[in-house]
Amino acid sequence: xxxxxxxxxxxxxxxxxxxxxxxxxxxxxxxxxxxxxxxxxxxxxxxxxxxxxxxxxxxxxxxxxxxxxxxxxxxxxxxxxxxxxxxxxxxxxxxxxxxxxxxxxxxxxxxxxxxxxxxxxxxxxxxxxxxxxxxxxxxxxxxxxxxxxxxxxxxxxxxxxxxxxxxxxxxxxxxxxxxxxxxxxxxxxxxxxxxxxxxxxxxxxxxxxxxxxxxxxxxxxxxxxxxxxxxxxxxxxxxxxxxxxxxxxxxxxxxxxxx
Length: 259
Known about the structure:
Layout (H helix, E strand, L loop, with lengths): L1 H19 L5 E11 L10 E2 L4 E11 L3 E17 L5 E13 L2 E3 H4 L9 E13 L2 E12 L6 E11 L5 E14 L1 E14 L2 E6 L2 E5 L10 E13 L9 E14 L1
Antiparallel strand pairs: 1-3, 1-15, 2-4, 3-4, 4-5, 4-6, 5-7, 6-7, 7-8, 8-9, 9-10, 10-11, 11-12, 11-13, 12-14, 13-14, 14-15
C-alpha cells in the first residue's frame, strides 16, 4: 500500500530536504586498481579457481554541512567457480560488481549539540546499502566520529543488519585514515567489519598502506601506490575445511588516482 511505499522512501526524502539546506560541499573521487593471488580459500560461489583476481574500484565521497555521502563500486575480474562436495570446482569466467552507498547524518551539528565526552567528537545516524550479483544488505544504526591521537580520521558504526542470506543481525564497523611521513609521505587507511550470521560471525578487513608519488614529480601528486591486505573469515559449518571456518589473507598491489 501507499503507506508502506512511503515508509521505505522516507529516509531518502529526509536526506533530500536536509541536502537542500546544505551549503558547505567538499567532494573527492578516486579510481583504484588492485591485483592479488590467493582468493581460492573461501569454498563457495566467490571462489577464484585460479587464485588471482583483479579489482577496479570507483570511489566517490561528498561532505555537505550535515551529511557525508560515500559511494563505491568494485568491479572484479576473475575465474569464479563453485565447490562441489568432492572439492572440485565448476568454472564460471566473468565479472562481478559490488555497490555500496553509506550516508551518515551528523546529528550533533544538525541539532547544535555539544559532544564533549572523552574522545567522542560527533554523533551520527548511519546507514548502508550493499548490492552485488546475487546479494543485498541493508544497514541502519548509530556512528561516532572519534578524536584519537595519531589518527586523522576514525569512525565507528553500530548497525542493525538485514541481508538476503541470514536473519536480521548486527554489524560493527571501523573506518580510519591517517597520514604520516617517514622520509616520504604515507597514507594508512582502511576498514574493519564484524557481523553476525546464522552460522556465527564473519570478519572482513582491508587495511592499506599507500605512498604519494609527488616526490618523484609534482605532476604525480594525485597518484598513489602501495599495497592492501584483504582479510576475510567466514564461520560456516557447511564449508568443507578446518573447524568450519574459511579464511583469506591476501596481499594485493594497488595503484590509486585521486581527483
